[in-house]
Specification:
Bound molecules: phosphoribosyl ATP, zinc ion
Number of strands: 16
Structural class: alpha+beta
CATH class of the largest domain: Alpha Beta
Order of helices and strands: EHEEEHEHEEEHEHEHEEHEHEEHE
Strand content: 25-35%
Distance between the termini: 38 Å
Radius of gyration: 24 Å
CATH topology of the largest domain: D-Maltodextrin-Binding Protein, domain 2
């Protein structure tokens, strides 16, 4: 399948699974709107020349490499595995981490195995869906294994007697506990990221990719930011500024008929209740914390 229209770009995202909803949301937050096809696999960009292809996450690297898509949202775990399978030359470039789909690739052993150190795994059998990544990271620690690739249900391999340990994605750890496995070591931290191709991108498409990246930056900056408004005694301004997380220069306005001031600031870090309580203790009142919808630096 070749892309006929050089003036449109195609983004591959997961059709259904852990990354699909957030992938759609982040693109919609960039102002993209789509008309869905009947089979719901192709979404046509309505007022922007960016279309979506909804596929299995494992297929995304290949679709990018074959030029069927220009961008893809996929877990770093998958992109790294593909790169290692191809001697680090996958031809994919990571354009931006997206702040969701966090997980870790960890080695786990049966709870009662008595193994407490990764070095004790040397020569043992490991089951995983990520053989290249697992081998690469274990060999860095001088541990080499007989690695068997499973595409699912990795966690049952030790109880089936087909592996001594597993290397699998973990988020809450519930699956490991349910299968009487103990997390021994984190090999790799992963999150969803936007990938492109390292070569063969036309000037027109690159301009669209740059525009999308600039909007993505704005969306991510906005979602991490809060707009804080408060009143405070003028003499407390320095202290208040110190207490506002991620703020150096707030806007300060006099309050008519009062010796107090109004302070407005965009906080680039999470604003916790503890921050508000400390601001109140420093003399602030009427503290409001508002979400930021869009930001363009
Ligand atoms: O159908 P398709 O192939 O598209 O989907 P999939 O079933 O292969 O993938 P999916 O939707 O399960 O995961 C997509 C991506 O989400 C992964 O490639 C990771 O980048 C990311 N991700 C984040 C996870 C997890 N967290 C996760 N916990 N992927 C899988 N898991 C699995 C893990 O394999 C294990 O079975 O969840 C279980 C562990 O979870 P906890 O919470 O019990 O620790
Ligand atoms: Zn998959």
């Amino acid at each position: 399948m070749k892309i006929e229209n050089e003036k449109r770009i195609r983004v591959a995202i997961q059709k259904s699974g852990r990354l699909s909803e957030r992938s759609q949301d982040i693109l919609k937050n960039c102002g993209l709107r789509f008309a869905r096809s009947k089979d719901k696999l192709f979404w046509y960009g309505r007022d922007f020349p960016i279309d979506l292809l909804l596929v299995r996450d494992d297929d995304i690297p290949q679709l990018l490499l074959e030029g069927v898509c220009d961008l893809g949202i996929v877990g770093e775990n998958i992109a790294r595995e593909v790169a290692l399978e191809n001697d680090n030359e996958s031809g994919l470039v990571q354009l931006r981490k997206l702040g969701f789909g966090h997980c870790r690739l960890s080695v786990a052993v049966p709870e009662d195995s008595g193994i407490t150190d990764i070095s004790a795994l040397d020569g043992l059998r490991i089951a995983t869906s990520y053989p290249a990544l697992t081998r690469n990271l274990l060999e860095k620690q001088d541990v080499s294994n007989e690695i068997s690739k499973l595409s699912g249900a990795v966690e049952i391999a030790p109880s089936m007697g087909t592996a001594d340990a597993i290397s699998d994605l973990v988020s809450t750890g519930t699956t490991l506990r349910a299968n009487h496995l103990r997390e021994l070591e984190i090999l790799f931290q992963s999150e969803a990221a936007l990938y492109g191709r390292s070569q063969g991108v036309s000037v027109e498409k690159q301009a669209l990719i740059d525009l999308l990246l600039s909007r993505l930056n704005g969306v991510m900056l906005a979602s991490a930011s809060k707009y804080v408004m408060l009143h405070a005694p003028r003499e407390a301004l320095e202290k208040i500024t110190e207490l506002l997380p991620g703020v150096e220069h707030p806007s300060v306005m006099p309050l008519e008929g009062s010796d107090r001031i109004a302070v407005h600031a965009v906080c680039g870090e999470t604003v916790f209740w503890e921050h508000l309580e400390a601001l109140k203790a420093a003399g602030a009142s009427a503290i409001l914390v508002l979400p930021v919808e869009k930001m363009l630096a």
